[in-house]
């Protein structure tokens, strides 16, 4: 009876994965379904939906708890519908719906009592900063579809609409919920949260930024630069690996915000590339940290030592992940960050100083974590086969498609 149930569960998960894959590929046809309820208006959202389905497949291969797989499927389904929403109301509905499976994963599968406090933070930040969106929408907008969403608004309106999505970036000052939720959630939920749900904030502000003009961008520049620099130094002093990876996500998404408000065509494209590279890299980071936690029963950086002596393959993949995290050449994150470095150096010379400090700090904490993990005495045994599932994610983080832009 157990094997029969397991067979049907695997079959249903496989069917759902295939259905989502086919549905995402329909985005290349540039069509609209269900009377505009599902609207394929940009290849950017197709690529992000492909990232979501890719992460779902990775979780299905690496996760053993069926409940977490089920809730992960729900989150990915809501996220794909969010990326393909043709209405501002449906856009907001799916944005908030993704929070419910995360709460179930956090409360049902979290191990410590602090998970209740993390849920309070998640609900408060998401709903409190989502209220201005509904208020402004009900007072100002008299239409519903993104087809007609092509006009300039005042800075105040953009700010209140953007606050709803800046929480899920998250930018500094609105980031407090993210480390708490990451620390208390299981590994697969952290992978979904970093790889997919942070992209919801990026895509939401990507939509809203279409109404920005070249004025009143100083606040967003300030938020993005502060997010990158401050959180890099916070990462240096972290002792918990999951908290370090969470603050690292805040750093990278600050760079995404800087790209989205750059008012350049390639800046918008580079924000997409940054979100893709951060999605693949952060998923791998949380996967490896979860594996180390299951082996050593600790997430402290100082206790996770000596893995190079017991598994060279595992250490190689983790090394490639951390190297990709600080934008090493050949990774796609390097390509996007390099172009934005040229842009900010051409219009805001003092911004080079902020980016230099950000790169220096991110390089330091990434190399520090890598050295701590690899060097030391033998601690335990790792099965090399578990790391093989990381190979497609490593390929996507270092894929060769970005060479086409140079050629």
What are the key terms here?
1% strand; two-stranded antiparallel sheet; disordered C terminus; 71% helix; mainly alpha; 407 residues
Describe this structure in words.
It is a single chain. With 407 residues, this protein is mainly α. Helices cover 71% and strands 1% of the residues. A two-stranded antiparallel sheet has the order 1-2. A hairpin with a 4-residue loop joins strand 1 (32-33) and strand 2 (38-39). Helix 2 (43-62) runs antiparallel to helix 10 (187-208) and helix 3 runs antiparallel to helix 5 (99-109). InterPro entries: NADH_UbQ_OxRdtase, ND/Mrp_TM.
What's this entry about, in short?
One of its GO terms (molecular function) is ubiquinone binding. The protein is built from 19 helices and two strands.
Choose one word for the global shape: globular
Beta-strand segment tally = 2
Instruction: Indicate the structural class.
Output: mainly alpha
List the total number of helices.
Answer: 19
* β-strand amount: under 5%
Number of domains: 1
The order of strands across the largest sheet is 1-2
Distance between the termini: 57 Å
User: Which ranges are low-confidence, i.e. pLDDT below 50, for 5 or more consecutive residues?
Assistant: 403-407
Q: What integer is the average pLDDT?
A: 80
Percent of residues in helices comes to over 70%
Rg on CA atoms, Å: 21 Å
Largest sheet: 2 strands, antiparallel
- What is the ordering of alpha helices and beta strands? HEEHHHHHHHHHHHHHHHHHH
Question: Multimeric state of these chains?
Answer: single chain
């Amino acid at each position: 009876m157990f094997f029969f149930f397991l067979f049907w569960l695997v079959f249903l998960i496989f069917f759902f994965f295939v259905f989502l894959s086919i549905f995402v590929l329909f985005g290349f046809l540039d069509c609209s379904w269900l009377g505009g309820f599902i609207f394929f208006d940009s290849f950017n959202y197709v690529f992000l939906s492909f990232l979501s389905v890719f992460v779902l497949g990775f979780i299905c291969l690496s996760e053993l708890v069926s409940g977490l797989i089920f809730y992960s499927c729900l989150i990915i389904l809501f996220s794909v519908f969010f990326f393909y929403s043709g209405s501002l109301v449906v856009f907001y509905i799916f944005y908030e719906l993704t929070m419910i499976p995360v709460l179930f994963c956090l409360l049902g599968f979290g191990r410590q009592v602090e998970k209740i406090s993390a849920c309070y933070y998640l609900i408060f930040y998401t709903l409190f900063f989502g209220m201005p969106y509904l208020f402004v929408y009900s007072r100002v907008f008299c239409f519903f579809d993104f087809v007609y969403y092509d006009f300039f608004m005042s800075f105040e309106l953009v700010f209140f609409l953007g606050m709803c999505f800046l929480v899920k970036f998250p930018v500094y000052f609105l980031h407090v919920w993210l480390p708490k939720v990451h620390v208390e959630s299981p590994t697969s939920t952290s992978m979904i949260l970093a790889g997919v749900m942070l992209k919801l904030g990026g895509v939401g502000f990507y939509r809203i930024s279409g109404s920005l003009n070249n004025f009143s961008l100083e606040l967003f520049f300030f938020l993005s630069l502060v997010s990158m620099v401050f959180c890099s130094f916070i990462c240096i002093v972290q002792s918990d690996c999951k908290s370090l990876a969470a603050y690292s996500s805040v750093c990278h998404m600050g760079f995404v915000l800087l790209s989205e408000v750059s008012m350049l065509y390639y800046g918008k494209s580079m924000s997409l590339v940054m979100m893709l590279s951060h999605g693949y890299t952060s998923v791998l980071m949380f996967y490896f940290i979860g594996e180390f936690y299951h082996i050593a029963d600790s997430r402290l950086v100082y206790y996770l030592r000596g893995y190079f002596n017991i598994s060279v393959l595992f250490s190689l993949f983790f090394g490639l992940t951390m190297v990709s995290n600080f934008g090493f050449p050949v990774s796609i994150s390097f390509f996007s960050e390099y172009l934005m470095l040229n842009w900010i150096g051409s219009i805001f010379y003092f911004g080079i100083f902020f980016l230099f400090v950000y790169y220096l700090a991110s390089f330091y904490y990434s190399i520090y974590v890598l050295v701590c993990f690899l060097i030391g005495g033998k601690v335990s045994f790792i099965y090399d086969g578990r790391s093989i599932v990381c190979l497609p994610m490593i390929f996507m983080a270092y894929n060769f498609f970005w060479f086409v832009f140079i050629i």
